[in-house]
Amino acid sequence: MTVAPPRPTAGVRRNRPALMGRAPQDTPAGLGTYLLLAVTMLFAAFPLYWMFVIATSNDEALAKLPPAVVPGDRFMTNVDEVFSLQDVYFAASLVNSLIVSSVVTASVLFFCSLAGFAFAKLRFAGRNALMLFVILTLTVPNQLGIVALYIVMGRLGWNGTLLAVIAPGLVTAFGVFYMRQFIVNTVPDELVESARVDGATTMRVYGNIVLPAIRPALAVLGLLTFVATWNDFQWPLITLSGTDYPTSMVAISDLASGNYVIYRRVLAGAFIATVPLLVMLFIGGRQIVRGIMEGAVKS
């Protein structure tokens, strides 16, 4: 005598198609999440806002208790004082920073993407050892190489010029590693091999296949490189010491030097130097998020 297996209940039959056919949904954020994000944003943005408040006020606003939180009406006056100082050359420093940041960013995007493509898709002897060496250089603080770098630039006769600021940043280890990882996860090996079968050269594969696929990563790396180069202070201060046309960060430090510091001038100059970065981040913010997310979700 055979016993029939128990039949599933109606409830199970009713729920199974719904469970199997329904895609998992993200849990909507609650009110507490939005409040936490709003408070975090306020704390992050307040220093920049307060810098603008002091840049638009007079000297007494800095000593007020509680601190001044309403912008004044002296912004153009303070800006005019910053640009008219004879021993700072603030306008020229902004131009120098723009030149250095643009050249370094363009160089990093080209060389790092090319090196990342080589490490990701080309097969050559010592590839893994060289990649390991590149990664290990990320653990070395930049300050350890300042003396050697200064000596090398002196032998080349570049100290005191923008070439000494540009040359050390033309390629970065982080950029090579980041582009290598993104290309590995984004560009299939089969696509590269099919292009080679069709007769494409290595540079054509790089230009026609790899570059269009890594545009989000290029946007992320470009913005990060531009911001880091614009904000660099230590090396430009050392190599451009004594020159009349430093970079913007060095010019801001000159505004803060002396026995009596006029902070409304310092913060006005700092706010002016921050505006180009805010514009770039506002324009490319979506590209940063897109590039980071694409690199994170691809297997």
Automatic annotation (TrEMBL):
The keyword Lipid biosynthesis does not apply. GO terms for cellular component: plasma membrane. The chain crosses the membrane at residues 31-52, 88-117, 129-152, 158-178, 209-230, 262-283. One of its GO terms (biological process) is transmembrane transport. It is a multi-pass membrane protein. It comes from the Bacteria. It is found in: Cell membrane. The keyword Transmembrane applies. Keywords: Cell membrane, Membrane, Transmembrane, Transmembrane helix, Transport. Residues 94-284 form the ABC transmembrane type-1 domain. Its main location: membrane. InterPro entries: MetI-like (IPR000515), MetI-like_sf (IPR035906). Residues 1-24 are annotated as: Disordered. Pfam families: BPD_transp_1 (PF00528). Belongs to the binding-protein-dependent transport system permease family. This is Cellobiose transport system permease protein. It comes from Micromonospora halophytica.
